[in-house]
Protein: Cyclase
Amino acid sequence: MSPAMGVSLKTLPSLEEVKASNRDRDVPLEAAWIWGENDELGRLNLLTPERILHAKTTEMVDGHCVSLKCGMQAWSEHGIVGRGVLLDYHRWKTEVRKEPYDAFTSHAIHLEDLEAVASYQNVEFQCGDILLVRSGYTATYYEYEKSAPERLAEAGTHKPNLAGLAQTEEIKTWLHDRYFSAVAGDAPSFECWPTTQKWHLHEYLLACWGVPIGEMFDLEALAVQCLKRKRWSFFFVSTPLNSPGGVASLANAMAIF
Structure:
């Protein structure tokens, strides 16, 4: 990594190091708010001007834009701009592995799955990446709209079951130690739902590490463009609403190739 990029994974604490430093403090064991007690950006601090410029230089090639149809005061003022990476789990699982599944079930995506998808797509992660995971929820929703609308009606009358990242220690450590600046997925929940544990990934991503979570991103057009280009990284731009004291916002997100 270029020195101009700022902090690197080698200089940032691992989750195990975070736990060790917190054992004698009155804070959650895995709290990694490492930019000061008054910080409001969390992992967005990784999106430095140097890192954004590097992403722009390496990821914006032909100017093609893909809207992600997702339509915080500190987040709005800073912006969420940098290198985005799509892990197209749905395509890998159903088309490459030939193992169909229903994204309207609590299908769990495990660490070995994410690493296999990254390897298949030749993705090499960088510090500060914005991670997008395509679970297949949106594709399944569109399919059910045409072929089985009663399935959508049924899903709306029960507690949701959703495909997403598994609640495992391995996933939790991976999400922390990769130092993603933000994460997002195409389902109403980034993680599988209901949780298989007594805890949720949301608790660690948002409260302990300051990692923004995007949900219900329409990743279908993006998946098509990534496959067409055989490139699953891009320049990512998100401008949340400037709402002082707000706790959520439309992402207003776009991927640019």
